[in-house]
Amino acid sequence: MKRFLYSVCILIIPVPGIASDPVLGEKEPPTLESNRFRGSEGSGIYTAKNLPVSWSKDDYLWTLELPGDGHSSPMAWGDRIYVTCTDRGNPRLFLLCLDSQSGKEIWRRSFESEAHRLHRLASYVTSTPAVDRYHVYMAWSNHSDFNIAAIDHSGKEVWRRKLGTRVTQHGGETSPIVLDDRLIVVNDSRGPSSIHALDRMTGETLWNRERPNDPKGKASYSTPLVYHTARGDKQLIFISTSRGMTALNPNNGDVTWEMPHLFSKRTILSPVRIGGYIFASDGSGTGGAKLTAVRPPARAGAEPEIAYEIRKSAPYVPTPVGYRDRLFLVSDGGIATCIDAPNGEEIWKAKLGDTYFSSPIRVDDRIYAVSRRADVVVFRAADTFEILGRTLIDQTCHATPIVHEGRLYLRTVSHLYCIGGG
């Protein structure tokens, strides 16, 4: 196997004039549920009183044809919706700021990139931005550069970093997240790999944890989980083929615990905590190999344990979602499964039809699952399988929807839809 030598250049491009929210003001919005991939702390859980379970074309509050394609999820802050897309399949990227009530474009920024190898089902836009009261944070990469930038809510670029290279087999990158005063950026790739904690205001490095690249050449596309321990402290949970499952201290990047040989195949879905366990999977193009339930250490110095594994209809791309002590899976092949999370017993299994890349979300006691044809299936989060509604949009969809202030925002490759909430 050929070996490549990479030189890593770390560059900060400061943009003067950092200010506290010129558009949204000092007051924090009432919810942070849509500020990162899969909502609050990656749970995929939302609340909305009057969200419909099925609808017709006349029920959309607004629709928007995007200026390009993409697979990233929309993000929300206050009365703004943010979404990224390509320039009609070209490597140039757009970040759009939209009015949440009308869908009208407020501003647009473009970012240049380079053409690079993609999987036939992938896009140049796969990373979902993160957002806080100050900025929108977006990541993009090619084989030359791995970039992260902060844009304020008026559309002004505040800072930009180049964090070396991100070399992957299929293109794409993970999604950044905001935790307290820092931005967490993951680069588990086929080349030099690392996890970065950046000051969200300046982009300066707070800590950097180097990671071994995977010897089999498998990059990770997973977004980290924020895990709250019984002691009340926070841990960042990462998964990759090379290091398995790793818990880091978000304050300094130190490894708190690790299970380095947990996975043998590629990791894509994001770890999620349900019923006292942390769930994560690995797999390949044929689907999930296994979903593993990990019991985190109960005290400092203790070791994590594998509680059980699920191999039948395990998801590879769609991240599971929980309700109380139930785990709800949607496999890439369209099989929905309800699991008793504490013991791993299967409660029910049902075929939804079609195939899935989008992750299911839970809105109160309902699960919304969006297939690759944008067939939106809503079923009850209960011990009996019950479909509550079904709506076929009939467009290609890989993105996970969000809920913000009572409305569902659903992104297909080419369009953004706003549903419910009045």
Present the secondary structure layout:
Layout: E1 10-14, E2 45-46, E3 60-65, E4 75-77, E5 80-87, E6 90-99, E7 105-111, E8 130-131, E9 135-141, E10 146-152, E11 157-163, E12 177-179, E13 182-187, E14 193-199, E15 205-211, E16 225-228, E17 234-240, E18 244-248, E19 255-259, E20 272-274, E21 277-284, E22 287-295, E23 305-310, E24 321-323, E25 326-330, E26 335-340, E27 345-351, E28 361-363, E29 366-370, E30 375-380, E31 387-392, E32 402-404, E33 407-411, E34 415-419
Parallel strand pairs: 2-28
Antiparallel strand pairs: 1-11, 3-34, 4-5, 5-6, 6-7, 8-9, 9-10, 10-11, 12-13, 13-14, 14-15, 16-17, 17-18, 18-19, 20-21, 21-22, 22-23, 24-25, 25-26, 26-27, 28-29, 29-30, 30-31, 32-33, 33-34
The count of β-strands is 34
The fraction of residues in strands falls at 35-45%
Q: What ranges have pLDDT less than 50 throughout 5 or more consecutive residues?
A: 1-31
Number of helices: 0
Distance between the termini: 58 Å
Largest sheet: 5 strands, antiparallel
**Helix-strand category:** mainly beta
User: Helix share of residues?
Assistant: under 10%
Q: Look at the structure and give the mean pLDDT.
A: 87
As a whole number of angstroms, the C-alpha radius of gyration is 20 Å
Question: Outline, from the CA principal axes?
Answer: globular
Lateral arrangement of strands in the main beta sheet: 1-11-10-9-8
Features:
mainly beta, globular, disordered N terminus
